[in-house]
Each structure stands twice: as structure tokens, then as C-alpha cells.
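note to self: dont lose this again. the chain is below, predicted strucutre after it. 124 aa total, dont forget to put it in the shared folder this time
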Amino acid sequence: MATLTSSKAVLDFVRDYYDCTIDFPWQSHPHFGVIRHAHSKKWFGLVMTLSEHTLGISDSENMIDVINLKASVFDVEFLQSQPGFAPAYHMNKTHWISLILDGTVPDEQIESMIATSFALTSNG
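---
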């Protein structure tokens, strides 16, 4: 399996392992992909390419791939200050976290966080 260091790699991973749909609903941001539960259509992830400046991690316009995932309030609070993470871009910052897909966060942790987000957003 390829390492999860890009939006494409993450989208390929979720397509292979989850019952989900992926859509790109915004014309103004055609590379923003919403990952949804196949049946409920509820979001469990959002992949984006953003500048570091937009994400608030530096003044650089360097573009980076990011995934927003739902997590426990405790995990969000803890992870926001860890390398490879930032407060959720354009989402509820109490329940969602932005994970930077640059290799800083190990694949196993990304996979675990995707599973957690999937579980937290499942019905029942």
C-alpha cells in the first residue's frame, strides 16, 4: 500500500476499505473531496489542498494536502498542538481536526483516525 501522504492516496485508501462515496461539490474548490457514508451520506472526512497560510500554520503560500476528520473532544484538544495537525479548517474546531498529509503523521495513525471518524459519524 502507498503511504498516505497525499489527498489521492487517502481517497484511494477509503475507497478500498470503507463503504463510502466521494464527491467534489464546490466548483470554486474542485479539489475539495467530501468523503461520505454510502447510505446516510453523512461526512466522515474532507480532503483539501490548502496553503500553509490558509491553514494557519505559517505565512507560506506553500500548498499542502490535508484531511479533516472527526475525533473526540479530548483528541482534538491534544492533537491541535502536535506536529502534523492543525485546528480544523472550515469545520467545528471542537469535534474536527485537520491532519496534514506530509508524512509527519504515521500511516497507522491516519488509518486509525479515519476509522474513528467513520465510527463517530455512523448512525447507531
